[in-house]
Amino acid sequence: PERYYTAVKNDGKKPVDSRGIHRIKDFASWCFDRDEATVIAAGHSLYFRYFFDTFLPRSSTHLARKQKMQNCAIVAFTLEKGKLSNGKPWFRINEDTIRSVYLDFETKKVKKSKKD
Q1: What distances in angstroms separate CA 1 from CA 28, 37, 67, one per listed residue?
Q2: Angle at 52 between CA 44 and CA 60, to 5 degrees
Q3: Which in 11, 25, 43, 101 has the greatest CB count within 10 A?
Q4: How many Cβ atoms from other residues are within 10 Å of residue 94's Cβ?
């Protein structure tokens, strides 16, 4: 049923002149247009890294801001919505709600120095 899966916004290609930030914000808006209280989304780890970087507070030092999720990782969080004084919506991830359900975020690998 469409309630569980819909690909109406995905036509398989991105216009050359499109910007990722618009698609990220459109997805966040779509989440709040749903009747369900919980949205489950699957996607590429790089997309989610940019999603977290976009919606976490700039002061956040959470690993999600700069590190990708591991392959097949599952992460839960609360996305919040508000309105700016000009009436435009804003979105924010409450960093205290980020919880790794399965696997985690990648950690940077320390390169070993070559010994002579």
Answers
A1: 22, 18, 34
A2: 150
A3: 25
A4: 13
Furthest-apart CA atoms within the chain: distance in Å: 63
* Residue 100 near residue 64 (C-beta atoms within 8 A): no
Contact by Cβ (8 Å): 63, 102: no
CA dihedral 102, 53, 66, 78 (to 10 degrees): -30
Question: Tokens at residue 66, please?
Answer: 């700069």
SS3 (DSSP) at 105: strand
Chain centroid to Cα 82, Å, comes to 17
* Alpha-carbon separation of residue 32 from 10, 39, 40, 89 (angstroms): 18, 9, 13, 11
pLDDT in tens, 55-92: 999 999 999 999 999 999 999 999 999 999 999 999 99
Which residue shows structure tokens 């247009």? 33
pTM, to two decimals = 0.80
